[in-house]
Design goal:
Strand content: 25-35%
Shape: globular
Low-confidence stretches: 14-26
Mean pLDDT: 83
Number of helices: 5
Number of strands: 6
Order of helices and strands: HHEEHEEHEEH
Radius of gyration: 21 Å
Helix content: 25-40%
Amino acid sequence: MRKVLAVLAVVALVLAIAVPAPAEDGDLEYLVKDKDVVKVFVKDFTNESGQAQVSSADFKKELEKALTLRKAVKFEIVSNPEASDFQIGGVIKNYMYSKTDPITPTTSPAALVLDAATTENYVEMTVDFEVVQTKNGKAVWQEDVKSYLKHTMTPEEALPMIYDKEARTFLWKSFGKPNR
C-alpha cells in the first residue's frame, strides 16, 4: 500500500511540475506575454447604472487610452473585430458620486472619528468586463471590477477620473501588474 501511495505521489509531483498551471483568476498575462503587439477591439459598453451623466462612449475612449499607454504589454487598438486578438466589452453596472465619503466601519474609535471628520468627495464605479479571445470566440476573462476615489472633486471632474481609475484597475486585474 505504501508503494502505491509513493508512486501516486511521484506521479502527482511530476504532473504538477510538467503541466503548466492555468492562470489565476483575473490574470491573462500568459496569453500575451510572448506577443510583440496585442491587437484589441473595444466593443461599445452598455450603461445600466441608471445615471444619465455616465457616458459609455467616453468610458470606452478612456479604456482605449489606458490600453495604449500600458507599458507592460503593447496594445494596439483595431477598428475591425476580426483583426483583433481580443475583444473587450462590458456593462457599466454602478456609478455613484457623493459629496462626502462613506464612513468605513472599523473597530478603532480613533479611526472612526478620523474617518468621519474627512471631508473629501467620493466616487465609485462598477463595470462587468468580458474579454473574448477572437480566434475561438471563447470568453477568457469576466469579472465585475469596482473602483473608487476619495478626492476633492466636483461631479463633472469625477467622471473622467473614475473612468481612468476603472480602466487601469481592469488592466491590472485582467492582464497583470504594470511594469514601471
